[in-house]
Structures are given as structure tokens and as C-alpha cells.
Amino acid sequence: MIQIKDFEEYKAMYAKSVSSPGQFWDEVASSFYWQKKYDNVLNWEFDSPTVKWFEGAKVNITENCIDRHLEKRADQTALLFEPNEPSDTAQSITYSALSKQVNKLANGLKKLGAKKGDRICLYMPMSPELAYAVLACARIGAIHSVVFAGFSSKSLADRINDASCKLLLTADGFYRGKKYIDLKTISDEALKQTPSIENVLVLKHSGKPISFDAHRDVWYHSLVETQSDQCPAEPMDAEDELFILYTSGSTGKPKGVVHTTAGYMVYAEYSFRNVFQYREGDIYWCTADIGWITGHSYIIYGPLLAGATTLMFEGTPTYPDAGRFWEVVDKYKVNIFYTAPTAIRALQAKGLEFVQKHNLSSLRVLGSVGEPINEEAWQWYHTHIGKGNCALVDTWWQTETGGIMISPLAGITKEKPTFATYPLPGIQPVLVDAQGEEIIGNDVEGNLCVKFPWPSMLRTTWGDHKRCKEVYFSAYKDKYFTGDGCKRDQNGMYRITGRVDDVINVSGHRIGTAEVENAINAHDKVVESAVVGYPHDIKGQGIYAYVIANAQVENPESFAAEIRAHITTEIGALAKPDKIQVVAGLPKTRSGKIMRRILRKVAEGVTDNLGDTSTLLDPTVVESIIDSRALVS
Ligand code: PRX
Q: Angle, to 10 degrees, between the axis of helix 7-19 and the axis of helix 21-29?
């Protein structure tokens, strides 16, 4: 696999990737194990959109993640597992053991009737079995749809139904910090409305008692125990779907982003090696949850494709105390550490004493992902965690891009705090203005698009190709639109400024304002609501909800508590508004559109210079919203 060594080489590779993309990607792809080599590197047009990489190939990603490493790495650790509770047993799984576990589960899934093309939903704790499950699905050609184990039963049911999943894999439950998540009970609730599910495979993880439906539910261990540890890898076409991952957008319903086999595979390893400058023998730790794209690409696929040792952590940064991350770095002598700005800010706020107790000298590369990293957090991370001598990569990418798009290459690209710096070779970002014209030159700002395909880009949104076209390929002709605003400095370095659509980024998680509004509006005491983001010290953005109630609210505190509890059941605790303000009306234009610009300003605490309000149907509404700010709970 191509691994860039210095900035001169980066520049040469970048130039080549633009002038001869076919040849460039052909070289990148040459190190993989192809059951049958592809005939064609790329075939595309963005109008429909149709994007096909490595057509004609037969390939299975698990042979590349596992089998091809066995000759050299059978006894090397593939997966390290650190449990939530420090005193619980940690695990170390070799490539040989991983192979056995994945194959056994793959055979188990087949026994339950799963086959190529079936959708399988994984709603599981961060346990090694979740990694086995992802890979077992890929082994037999089933499409995995991982649902983050913090979503509600309703969100789980919606996602199962959207993709008509045949099987659900879940567990009895697990602890996240001190909080117990009762996965089986939540699943049972969801299963009341998911007719496509035939069986539920249940992992015994916490050991707590659960309800068990003998006709439908199967214990993970009893199924897997009796299976052979050999399972042939399903020959997949390059463009066969590998997985679906749901993400929020500016409309109410989350969309199932679809990634396919060969292109995703090639880009996952290529980006992993080059961005983090992986070295043989490194211990690599990404703190994300596998329920998000970061976990898919950079806990499982990228590192395993590279034959690395990847650490999976079940817990949280602050349990049992704010030194947990650093204790784990010290325990495993982690070399590459990848986390989110929200975690850095939260730990920064707890003080240096938690850092100083631990030896962090093994660290060589630090990474950041999920949201813009502010200068203060960047400096703290660099100085106190990296001790001033680690590379720090601010990696910009999205669920839809499948892998890191704009980022320094660790130790190679000159860093600039808060800048994701330069695109990886093969990635052609452009900035566009309000008229859709490409903005040429440097020291400019615009909306971020990509004008040429890359192997791991989304291919469609599950069951709704039209939506994929509308959301990503229609705003600007012949370009993929990211939904992000972006600056390019005088040296051509990129800095992502945040979303320009109605999506808010809370602790690195994307939440559609419309989705939260729909949930609030479904409450029987609510007439209407409007949700906006506002700057939050730890989370990056917080959720601010303006709510019109259908009767006089006597006690705003208990009303807000009711709304929050309602959101937790409708979506999940991660979408709970930080602030709820009861209002008498919302600022609407004559055509009935809510003027969010004003609501955003008020949420930020700005009460004068609110801009032009002359197009409002009733400008006095704004005054009353400002006046009722005291009622925020
Ligand atoms: O707004 C950008 C922000 O996160 C969005 C993508 O969210 P999601 O699909 O959940 O994937 C997150 C993990 C890849 C982007 O549209 N974002 C992600 N990384 C950065 C970022 N914003 C600024 N800097 C980043 N490094």
C-alpha cells in the first residue's frame, strides 16, 4: 500500500491523482487481495448520480481484513478490548482468534437463514462481539446496519423498518459509565413494530436477567459455540453494498447512507495509513463508538485492513474519573490516539491533575474528528497530551465520504491549529459561492463541494436514490455538496467553519433540527416548535428549542423535563435540548417560513441588531421572544 513519506511526495502524488486518477487508484488498489481483479477503475457521472469503482472485481473485505494477514500475523493482536469497568477483564484477540470468531458467527448467521444482500441490524454494546458481527455480515455478503446503542426503541424500529432488516443482533445490556443501558428491553419494545425481523441474536454481556422469546430469540454463545470456524468468504461484486449507516439530515427522517464493497475497502486502508502514518507494531486507539462512521472506518475496517492492533473501549472519558483515557493510553502504550474535540474540551475542563498521573510518552500521533476543533482545545491537546512533540491531525470527513478527506498527514504536513489543512491525494475539494460558481484562488470562503469521485463516497441513500441526488448532487451541478461552510487561507489550507444547513453538530454527532422539531411537535401539549444550535463550551453546539404550548405553562421547569423525557423516547438522550424556551409565537415570514437566523441570534444571547425583520408577518413576536428569555429551562 502506498504510504507517503514527505511533503514533496505528497505534492507529487496529489498532482498525479488529479492528472491520472485511473492510474493513481489502480496503484493504490494493487496491494489488496482480489478474488478476481477489476476490469475498470472508475465509471461515473454525478447527474444521476452513478459512481462505480473497480467494476468487474470479485472481492470480500474480510479476506483483506483477516485472511491475508494470517500467514504473517496469526499471533499478533488484532483487537484489544478495554471494558467500561477498569476491574473487569480486558481482552486481547489475535488475528487467528478473530478469524475463528468471525467465521463461527458467519456460519451462525447462515444457520439463521441470512444470506448475501440481507440486511442485518446490529444494536450492541462496544464489545468485541460487535466487531465480530460487523465482519461476519461482510463475510457472508449481508449488509450491516449498525444502530448506535444510545438511540431509542422508536429510532431503532424506524431504522430496522427502513431497511427491512431480517435479523437483529443485540445484548442483554451494558454500562456506559455509571448508566445501565437495557438493550434487550429497548429492543423488545422496537420489535413490536418490526415485522421483517425473523430472529434476534442476543449476546450475554452484562449477565442481567432479560425477557426471552424462545420462538424468536437465540443466545449468541449457544449459536456460535457449535459452528465451524471456517466459512468461505462470499464473492462480492465491487459495487455490492457493504453497509448502511443512518445519519441525520435537514429533513425530518434520517437517511441510510449506503457504502459499497471495493471502493470503501481501498479508501479505508489508504486513508488510515497515510493520515496517521501508521508504523508496523503501533498500538492504535480510536475512542469513537462503532455506531458512528468513525468507528466503522477507523476502529474496524481501516486498521484491520492495515494489519494493525486496534483498541476498542467500552467506557466513557470520565468514568471512573477524568483520567480514564490517559490511564488506558498508559496501560496499552498507545502510539496513535484519535478522539473528538468535545472529549478534549470536557477533559480540559477537569484540570491537568488527571493527565499528570499517567505516562503518555508512547504517544506519537494525535487525531481529532467530528467537529471543528477550537484553537484553545487544539493547543491543550497538543501541549498537555502530545507534550508538544506529537503530530496532531485534524481530520475532516463525513458519514457520506466514508473516509478522511481533508487532513494533515501526521508529521508530514505543516499544522495550523483549527485547519484541516490539505486534501488527501485523490480528493478534489472546491469552494462555491451563492450563485454556484466555483471560487478560484486563495484567502476565500464558500460552501464546500467535491468535484471528482473518490472510492469511498456514498452511492445512494437506502431505498431512495432520488433523495441522494437531491441532497448531495443537485445544489451545485456536477459536484457533491458537503453541507459545510469552509475557508481557504492564503496558502490554500482548508478550515471547516461548520454546517450551512439545518443540521447541528452536538458533541460531534449530527442532529437534524427538523427531526427534533418533529419529535417535540408530537408531544400532546405542544402546538409548534423551532430548534436551532447555539455555541456550547463542551459540546461545540447545544440544542435550543423554542416551544409553543397549547395551554398556559404554569411550571416551565417541569414542562421542559416532560419535553426532554419525550425526546429521549422518540429519538434518544443524545437529542435532548439543552435549553427549552416556552414562547407565544415564532418569527415567520409571510410565506410561513420560520426565520431561524433570528432564533439563532437570540439563542446566542444577542438581543439587538437582529438584522432585517421587515419581512416578518408579525415583527412584535421577536420582542416577546426576547422578553420571555427568562423562562428558559
Ligand atoms: O460538519 C462537519 C463535521 O461533522 C460533519 C459530519 O458528521 P458525521 O457524518 O456524523 O461524521 C463525523 C465523523 C466523520 C461534517 O459535515 N466535521 C467532521 N469532522 C470535522 C468536522 N468539522 C470540522 N472539522 C473536522 N475535522
A: 120
